[in-house]
Amino acid sequence: MYKTPCGRFTGALGLGLKQKNLTRAATGHLVRLCRDGPAQKITFQRLKILKRQYVASSGQFWQRAKPQHEPPSVLEDRDDAIIQQVQQIPATKPPVLEKEPEAVRAARIEARQWKELKVEFSELPGIYARLSKIKLTALVVTTAAAGYAMAPVPFDPMCFLLASLGTGLSSCMANSINQYFEVPFDSNMNRTKNRPLVRGQISPLHAVSFALACGVPGVSLLTLAVNPLTGLLGALNIVLYTCCYTPLKRLSITNTWVGAVVGAIPPVMGWTAATGSLDPGALLLGGFLYCWQFPHFNALSWNLREDYSRGGYRMMSVTHPALCRTVALRHSLGLVGLSAVAPAVGVTTWTFPLISLPINLYITHLSFRFYRHGDRTNARKLFFCSLWHLPMLLLLALTCKKIKVEPDGGVASITPPVAMRD
């Protein structure tokens, strides 16, 4: 602070006034400022300026020293240098886009517009076959037929055909509804991106109508023409597949166990269609299908992990790879155990465990290799083995089927329900 007397206060009051006189002089100064006119009226900002410019020291007002400018820091110099470099960068002109031809632009706009789907009648059989997953439906009907053939009753061709038809129609409905719900997810998978609903070959309403046209007659046929128990199992299978298994695929790995239950019901339906009752033999056949599905599906999903991950499906092979291999091995051993139980419940003779042991040991051996190594090669071998293992196992069980003999020498039979005869 440098001591320079304030000329304005010195001329009005003079040097050497007391502190009490300084206060009165300052008041007079403010009154004079107010009398000078509107342009010189005192304001809050002006008072702040006065407070900043003058300080009282030893009974006198002294002008405040001007703050010295500190030298800019190294960081500020660096920032200024960076700013200057940025300002020196020449502005680039945006690239000139070539004008799109009018025909190409019109075609692009046309492709984005909503269009009415036109389906040729000649294409409908193929579309319906893919919508209903015809290969999977054929496997379902085959296992149901095996369950009917294993039942200890005389073979009724008409009942067999009605049960097979009703089971096939129910499977078509379940598969169609499954695809209807999974269109957004199927479009992300290479395995399912060519399905009819994903490609827009038919409308969702068309697919649902086809599903109802299959499911309602199918369940009605099983209930009225076969027996109510088989119809109930068919309806239960549709509900489990569409309402439980399908949404669980994106929520939890328990979907695999629910799907195994769905696959185990068709042979039980075949048994109940023949006998009208739920016997231990029906549960045994369902157990065969239940255990077989784990080495079959776990090996299949192992080589499709990337696809399932893109689709957002929570499969064991994606989220729990070690558990996936363990479960496949565990249920392969379960096939050996169930084959040994079959004679005890009166379904097959005691030769069945012996002649089925080689194929059961072979699939168990492949499951063990898949468990130890967990590579694509062993997974592929296990999957292809499961494709022929199930038909072979059911065929061996059918050749070793145990036939009950009445005391009078006749073959035991169970009278079919009255509804089936109608």
From TrEMBL:
Q: What is its EC number?
A: 2.5.1.141
Say which domain of life the source belongs to: Eukaryota
Record localization: Mitochondrion membrane
Q: Where are the transmembrane segments?
A: 136-155, 229-248, 255-274, 350-370, 382-399
Top enzyme class, one word, equals: transferase
> Which reactions appear under catalytic activity for this entry?
heme b + (2E,6E)-farnesyl diphosphate + H2O = Fe(II)-heme o + diphosphate
> What is the recorded membrane topology of this protein?
Multi-pass membrane protein
InterPro entries the UniProt entry points to: Protohaem_IX_farnesylTrfase, UbiA_prenyltransferase, UbiA_prenylTrfase_CS, UbiA_sf
Please give the HAMAP family that the UniProt record associates with this protein.
Answer: CyoE_CtaB
Q: What is this protein called?
A: Protoheme IX farnesyltransferase, mitochondrial
Gene behind the chain: COX10
